Amino acid sequence: MAKKLMKGNEAIAAAAISAGATHFFGYPITPQSELIEYMARELPKAGGCFLQAESEVAASYMVYGAGGAGARVITSTSSPGLALKQEGLTYMISAGIPCVVVNISRGGPGLGNILPAQSDYFMCTRGGGNGDYYHPCFAPASVQECVDLVRHAFDVADKYRMPVLVLGDGMTGQMMEPCEIPPRQEVKADKPWAADGNHVARGEHNRINAMDLQADVLEAKNEDIQRRLKEIAETEVMYETVDVEDADIVFVAYGTSSRAVKNVLSKAKAEGLKMGLIRPISLWPFPTEAFDKIKKDCKAVIAVEQSCGQMVEDVRLAVLGRWPVEFYGRSGGNPIIPDDVLKMAKDILGGK
Amino acid sequence: MAVVYKKSEALTDAPLTYCPGCTHGIIHKLVAETLVELGVFDRAIGVGPVGCSALCDFFFACDMFIAAHGRAPAVATGVKRAHPDKIVFTYQGDGDLASIGTAEVVHAAHRGEKITTIFVNNAIYGMTGGQMAPTTLVGQKATTAPEGRSEEHCGKPIRMAEMLATIEGAKFVERVTVNSPANVRKAKAAIKKAFECQIEGKGFAMVEVLSTCPTNWGYSPVEALRWLDENMVPYYPLGNYKNEL
After folding, report:
1. Among A25, A54, A213, whose Cβ lies nearest the Cβ of B78?
2. Is A315 helix (H, G, I), strand (E, B) or coil?
3. CATH code for the domain in which residue B70 is found
4. Residue A286 near residue A232, CB atoms below 8 Å
5. Domain A239-350, CATH 2.40.70.10 — does that match?
6. Scanning every residue of chain B, which has its alpha carbon at the shortest distance from the alpha carbon of A212?
């Protein structure tokens, strides 16, 4: 398969089409514009349906409708747009509707700015809507990984009947790298629960809803959601580790910031310092098991994020007091400065 | 014995949850009978709202969605785009369609979305216990307008049929009521045309049905039918507002 030089946003769109997505509903927002534009141009050529909604809220309910009717469906947005989509997401969690939601995040809070930031970690992993749930969420660090994870996200969504998020940032969406897009697959998923208008042939009507007035019925639904989430937590964890076993300092970073940390690791290696990286690929479920590879006398685990500190809370839970946890973060769309991260790590080592 | 009347096959056997004197039951029946008479029940998909008819997925025997508050036209858009050959309808109240869901219904109409919307307007929030709706009449008392709706404070009630009829993509818009046998027959004729509009692929269609809420209005069922006639009909004139069939 020939490699193509593509922007992250376009690669995500191309990957969705290759994964057999038939429907896209979205609303324009920077810095994911190339994604929705690619879909508008290319999805109809593949026989699919692109529709620009009147708002992110409406887009998420078009996804609810198409997904609930059995279509393989995707929407994309950026941070404030995802905030608007949260209502639809909690309904889709309740109703058991599979879909893929891409967030090419930007600086916040509020309208923030269009620069790369990782301050949507909570919103993307915890479930920003009402009720008891987490979101399966995958975070690519390269354009090829954008392709692979978007394709994977569709399968996870279908298997567990819930929305799955793919979280990049303005850098992931805008940078160009070579990547391979597999040929389009036609998906014939078995969705006997879908409200697709075949009630007469089926012999009963399917109901897609997000309301259960009886306490026991709602509790049973919640237990089913939790059962599926538990299975995801046990089987869908993804991460990369670099030189963790021998490291005196272990960084934890995902997506764009992990690329900056890899620069830190090369500089440290050149100076004879032992540093490693845990790169969560699934942000939820968080790769807690990766931390068991850290040696007992490691000096510190440092969470590096383009935020004021969100993933660091999961790092503390994974570390469980075994090593000191430190945090390095930049926000407002400012980048991670590898030299600053290295200096922080060296100060910790020097201070022993 | 000859059967002269039976319940539509497009309705399930589930007992309706509506209050005595509420006309939701009649409107459900008209929609169900229409689906069967037009021969589209076997390919119909409905989208219910939040409000008193949020349980209508139990009542209509076709595949059903319940949308979030106001979002039914967006959900129906997704369904119709996934299955253009199916007949898709929304069933919404006035809090749902005329307040929180104005953007969704306006843009579904604007796109000429090939769906049929049944809009049940009883000038009040019923499910939540009688709060003021955008459709509540001036002077009409509600739990959030205890002295009656004040025009100065919150404006006059919104007329959705007239507004939606101005939109190019809306091809059939009519306001009816079901407070007498004659009006029930007219309502059914309008609902039939609204589905034919979709079947013929013309565009968006809406039937606004003026309805009663004896419980929250504080009237007996009979008084409520009269109150509708004397107060709602003068402000919300019955009739066809758009017919491009």
Report:
1. A25
2. helix
3. 3.40.50.970
4. no
5. no
6. B55
Determine, yes or no, domain membership for B243.
Answer: no
Does the distance separating the beta carbons of A65 and B78 come in below 8 Å? yes
Number of structural domains in chain B: 1
Q: Which tens digits make up the pLDDT trace of B41-63?
A: 999 999 999 999 999 999 999 99
Digit-coded pLDDT (tens) for A318-352: 999 999 999 999 999 999 999 999 999 999 999 64
Residue of A nearest to B65 (CA): A208
pLDDT tens, residue by residue, A151-183: 999 999 999 999 999 999 999 999 999 999 999
- A-chain residues within 8 Å CB-CB of B71? 57-58, 61, 64, 88
Which pLDDT does position A189 carry in this prediction? 79
The ranges assigned to domains in chain A are 4-187+195-201+208-235, 239-350
Superfamily of domain A4-187+195-201+208-235: Thiamin diphosphate (ThDP)-binding fold, Pyr/PP domains (3.40.50.970)
Chain A nearest-CA distance from B89, in A, is: 12
* B233 near A CB under 8 A: no
Is some CB atom of chain A closer than 8 A to the CB atom of B102? Answer: no
Which of A191, A199, A211 to probe by mutation at the B interface, max B CB count within 10 Å? A199
Alpha helices for chain A (secondary structure H): 8-18, 33-42, 56-68, 79-95, 121-122, 143-160, 170-174, 199-202, 215-235, 255-270, 311-319, 338-350
In a domain, B232, yes or no: yes
Per-residue confidence (pLDDT) for residue B21, from 0 to 100: 95
Does residue B71 belong to any structural domain of this protein?
Answer: yes
Q: What is the structure's pLDDT at A351?
A: 61
Q: DSSP string spanning B110-149?
A: HTT-S-EEEEEE-SSBTTTTSB--TTPPBT--BTTBTT-B
Pairing of strands A249-252, B116-121: unpaired
pLDDT tens, position by position, A55-78? 999 999 999 999 999 999 999 999
Establish if B211 belongs to a structural domain: yes
Max CA pair span of chain B: 61
Range of the domain at B112: 24-236
Please write the tens of the pLDDT for every residue from B160-181: 999 999 999 999 999 999 999 9
pLDDT recorded at residue A352:
46
